[in-house]
Amino acid sequence: MNNLDEFDLDFWNWLNMFMKIHSKFSDLGMLYNTKDLKEEDIKNIKLIRELFNRIDDYAIDNLILMKKEIFGGYYTIKVNGSYYDIGHSESMSDSTYFCRKNNNSDNYINYEDIINNKPVSNKEAIIKLLKDVKEHFQALQRMGVSHSSVYEYVTNHDEKTSSL
């Protein structure tokens, strides 16, 4: 797979049909025992890793956060009116990529945007805010405030209940 365009209509039709039988699957789990799988299934299951990596590249470039899980995370994408969670999970000994059907999502990446490399609508505003945050963070560092102190304050203090 050299580009996302290669995830063609056949792949998405296959995935849609496959998900009717398997509401979720991982490449490691499915490819460990392939006796009940067709050649097409094996070929397409192996593509989930590449699909995740392409989605991840797009998300990183567009400052989209991965939805976190205990040992990894996922992105929800919308393709032809269907929603899929495409993710990655790691343990001490294994790395696996997974796909699961998502019946509806308010927070998704449109597959067409990935193909067209369309930036998210608020990317410029996010970059501007991040530059401002960076300047403030650097000022705090010059004052001797540590990374962990900033993180602790930002994540655990509510403006309404906190007195500084």
Question: Main traits of this protein?
Answer:
6 helices, 164 residues, 2 domains, alpha+beta, single chain, elongated
Plain-language structure description:
It is elongated, with a radius of gyration of 20 Å. 16% of the residues are buried. The model has no long low-confidence stretch (mean pLDDT 86). The longest helix has 23 residues. It is of the alpha+beta class and 164 residues long. The protein has two domains: 112 residues, no CATH class; 34 residues, no CATH class. Strands 1, 2, 3, 4, 5 and 6 form a six-stranded mixed beta sheet that branches. Strand 2 and strand 3 form a beta hairpin. It contains six helices and six strands.
Number of strands: 6
The structural domain count equals 2
Amount of beta strand: 15-25%
Label the overall shape. elongated
Radius of gyration: 20 Å
- Percent range of helical residues: 40-55%
| Element order: H for helix, E for strand | HEHHEEEEEHHH
Structural class: alpha+beta
Mean pLDDT: 86
C-alpha termini separation: 53 Å
Q: Give unreliable regions as ranges.
A: none
Question: What is the gist of this entry?
Answer:
With 164 residues, this protein is of the alpha+beta class. Helices cover 47% and strands 20% of the residues. The protein has helices at residues 9-21, 27-32, 39-61, 111-115, 123-142, 147-156; strands at 24-26, 67-69, 72-79, 82-90, 95-102, 109-110.
